Amino acid sequence: MLSSTAANLYWIGRNVERASNTASLLKATHRMWLMAGGAREWRSMAATYGVNESFGKKFPNKSVSDLLSFMALDGDNPSSILTSIRSARSNARTERNNLTVSVWEYLNDTWLALRDRIGAGIPEGEEQEFLDWVRERTSLINGALTNTLLRDEAYDFLQLGVHIERADNTARILDSKYHILLPQGETVGGHVDYYQWSEILACVNALRTYRRVYSSAIFPWRVAELLILREDLPRSLHFCLKQIDSHLVNLAGIYGSRHESHRLAGKLHGELRYGKVDDLFTTGLHEFLVEFIKRNNQLGQEIAENYLFAG
User: Fold this and answer.
1) Which helix (H) or strand (E) holds 113?
2) Cα distance between residue 112 and residue 256, in whole Å
3) Which of 14, 31, 89, 164 is 20 to 30 A from 142, alpha carbon to alpha carbon?
4) CA-CA distances (angstroms) from residue 122 to 33, 127, 168?
5) pLDDT tens per residue across span 228-263
6) What is the sign, positive or negative, of the torsion defined by CA atoms of 161, 24, 139, 221?
7) With left for phi above 0 and alpha for psi between -120 and 50, is residue 284 left, alpha or beta?
């Protein structure tokens, strides 16, 4: 497979996942803001995606409606839903021969509908409906990607993109909650607002899973254990690295060689597989998550060096 083809497929996976993640976190943040009425949640959202500076330059007043528009429909923001779907659609248009009709039609229709919204924006009072629509559309696209594609190298590159992006997003959500939304005066592992933690679990579709696994009130250390160390939760860091490691093994078999990306993925997967939640809090959850994000980015760069750039 040409490196340009592999790159297009990888970025389809990353960008569709990014759009879905952004919509989910915007929905949770908007609900928390409606409940609390403060700006802390929106500062957390901006920090999660590292857009504080670019958002402030474009919207000096930094209102809630401005940030919602910036993260949803701003074509100049590389993290916005619009930009993510536009990029995924552009990549898919190039690779239509490697995709099914269903994948292309769902993705193209989603882009056309978003494009029509650029001028109109999101009417006040319809924010939740819009974000639910985005989540439904990305679920359709992901369902088509999962259920209609051959399990070949094209699928491996798509899934590498999905899980690199998902791991990054889960780590950033956890870090922004713990480091930014933690109420003033609270100690790590102490009493924190139940509603905020419930919303974080809800935005990664893990609230009912938490209750099923732990059958108890929501505690920060158990949320961390669920979203970092559980092997069987599709949003957890452990699950994501297991998938990345597996798809890289598949590619090693196809191409007959291994690279630095295989070593990095295997090492990080092993650490999560044998990790203990007590160790995370002993060393510092924030410190762990910052280091994980750095290492996950490095892994993504190595995958690009090994497979996505022309040699």
Assistant:
1) helix 101-117
2) 41
3) 31
4) 17, 6, 27
5) 999 999 999 999 999 999 999 999 999 999 999 999
6) positive
7) left
